[in-house]
Sequence to fold (83 residues):
Amino acid sequence: MFERKVEDFRHHYKMKYGVELDDVTLYFFIRVNEMQKDLKKEIKSIPRITFRSRWDYFFYGLGKNILYIIITGCIFALVLILK
Fold:
């Protein structure tokens, strides 16, 4: 199975670009292609988050980052107080 993929890809690349590739390069291209397919499957399985308005996006982002905003505010307030 894998040898067939290598031969098909080698032939395709030779015909299209006129360059003959070694086995290591072919293996790399095939593995990257397989990883890309797996990644696309994983991305499709993630549910999409859609909002009706800009404000919904704003409040969603605010809620995701509220901890960092509070910590930054506290540090800023401490710097002003201790100065």
Notes: The chain has a mean pLDDT of 85. Residues 54-82 form the longest helix (29 residues). The chain has three helices and no strands.
